[in-house]
Amino acid sequence: MPLVRDFRNATFRLDRIDRCGRHIGSKLYWKLYAIENTLRVVVNSVLTLQLGANWWGVAVDPDVVSKASRFRTHYAAKPRNASPGVADIHLIFLSDLTEILRANSHQFLPVVTDTNNWIAALEAIRVPRNLVGHMNFPNAFDRAAIDFAYVQLPSLIGQLTTNAVPILIPK
What we know:
Blueprint: H1 14-51, H2 55-59, H3 62-76, H4 94-103, H5 105-108, H6 115-124, H7 126-133, H8 140-151, H9 153-162
Helix pairs in contact: 1-4, 1-8, 1-9, 4-6, 6-8
């Protein structure tokens, strides 16, 4: 397989853009999808256990709650498009999820003993996630950060399972 390079560093050819897109999709995007959605499940599961079903109103910064509400309004105005889900946690960014984890780390630490390592790993992929999400080409450092966070997911879920935390997928 030929080495894929950022199409912006060569003369324009549509096949170069295609190759970059296929590469990013097959190597990184799906990992970010898994990381971000697994984090939604973990946050929902732990905070539901610790604070109850209405944890969103208790544990989330009011600015993030407002952001989710604004996004919900935008989605409601476009009913032909797919819904992001019923739970507001589906409407926020990775950086917001990381902040929920940080602000409520005392709720997570009894279950996820390496909460601080997770916060650091998520902070390390904030920029690479935005690069990929905005259709840019991450470098080797960015790809390694994403790969590192991704390979840690089984350990994160394992801690919930070990500590008898019910896995609750937000709808």
